[in-house]
Every structure is written in C-alpha cells, then in structure tokens.
Amino acid sequence: MRPHVMQALDNWRMSWDEQQFAAQEAFTAAFPALTPADRCQCYGPTLRWEKPGEGSGKACLDDHGRATIEFDGVSKEAVGKAMLEVWGADWFAEGPGGFAEAEPGQYSYEDESTYAEYYIDVLADGRTSFAISYVKIEDIVTILDALEQALAEHRAA
Fold this sequence. Notes:
Elements: H1 3-30, E1 35-37, E2 46-51, E3 55-61, E4 67-75, H2 76-87, E5 105-110, E6 117-122, E7 127-135, H3 137-156
Helix pairs in contact: 1-3, 2-3
C-alpha cells in the first residue's frame, strides 16, 4: 500500500477509536453505573452494570458505530417512565398508560428503514427486560439518561 494511503487509513483508525471512546463517555455520563467490560458479540467497546434490586445489563457498540443496550430485571415503573418520556405512550401497542401500566407480555418493533430493533418483555413480577439494538448513539444516550433519572426517582421513593 502506498504511504499516503496507509497514513490516511491510520488517521481514520485513530479517529474511529476516538469516536468509540467518546460514545462510551456519553453512555457513562447518562448512566453512571456502566463500567468497562470484556467485549461482547458486538465486537466493539462494551460496558456492563449490575445493581441488586435494580437490574443488570450492557451497552455496546458494533463495528458499524451502532449502539445496543440489553437490560434485565429493571423496574417496570422506571422503564415505563423512561420510555414514556422518550417515545410517548402506545408506540409498541403497550397501551395508553405506557409500559408502567402494560400487561405482562412481549412487545417489539423493528424499524425497516434503519434496521433498529426494540424488544421489551414485561414480566408479571413488576420487572422488565429489554433490548434496543442497532440504533444511533444519540438514541441510546437519550434512553439511558431517561432511565437513570427514573431509577433515581425510584431509589428516592
């Protein structure tokens, strides 16, 4: 490979690494419980969290710069409040009261234009598990921030 092409490729790699680091900083600014972890199947930087009584999960980037979060055992009330703030009610056919009032079951949406995937399992015990995959970093940061605020309110109650 010619030297100027190698230099341009090296510049791109350095810029890509800086972008990934900045994305991780945005994730942890929005949801401070996230900490660096071994990479997952996304092949990019991975952050994980686990807090007894609040849940666990991960946030990661794939090699295309898309973000994914997968959280388990999170309060239905907190998830409902965050989802309501970000998307409004009944976006997933969960009902006019949003996920905080949703019946147990599986709710999903796949965006054919962006390939984003949204899966929310509302459990009978008042918890949820959810995955939001292949979305823009801004979208993940927005939901992480809303969820952190909802969980903080839940802790204070």
